[in-house]
Amino acid sequence: MERYIDVPFTKETAAELKAGDLVYLTGTIYTARDAAHKRLQEALERGEELPFDPAGNVIYYMGPSPAREGRAIGSAGPTTASRMDKYTPALLDLGLRGMIGKGRRSAAVREAVIRNGAVYFAAIGGAGALLSKSILESGVIAYEDLGTEAIRRLTVKNFPAIVCMDGSGDDLYETAAEQYRKE
């Protein structure tokens, strides 16, 4: 099914999304990769506020290339999501509604997705230049010293993603592989 949704979004909206759905996201999303996730975790351990409220929001596992003239951002392709798996359950428990990356997720992430009614989206790897066309604005909001791994706030319009894991735990990486083996 093809869906257009505004971000941030609610748990009720997440519950309507099913593994395999093609979704176009419009609104605000945040970027964070390994180093930023480590700092977020350390901030949580110290009892500090995070640089953005994860509740209802989406994190895109991406570190952009420099913007070309007239563009908000350079190439903006996804990175491998499993590198953030050790940090993800804590963010989901704070209300993070979605993540965008590529590749499989751990059992702990799957359990946290189900527990919190969240969604894991995949963006097409290797299509960073095309994906960047859906990004209207980009600005660093935290950890500027991390360069491309700094946390950014992005304004997106019709950003394409595929629901790879829905709130019931259905995982497209598993079901697609099973279907392929049967054919």
UniProtKB/TrEMBL annotation:
Superkingdom in the source lineage: Bacteria
Coiled coil: none
Signal peptide: none
The Fe-S hydro-lyase tartrate dehydratase beta-type catalytic domain, residue ranges: 8-175
InterPro entries: Fe-S_hydro-lyase_TtdB-typ_cat, Fe-S_hydroAse_TtdB_cat_sf
Keywords in alphabetical order: Lyase
Gene Ontology terms, MF aspect: hydro-lyase activity
UniProt similarity note: Belongs to the class-I fumarase family.
Matches recorded under PANTHER family: L(+)-TARTRATE DEHYDRATASE SUBUNIT BETA, L(+)-TARTRATE DEHYDRATASE SUBUNIT BETA-RELATED
Protein name: Fe-S-containing hydro-lyase
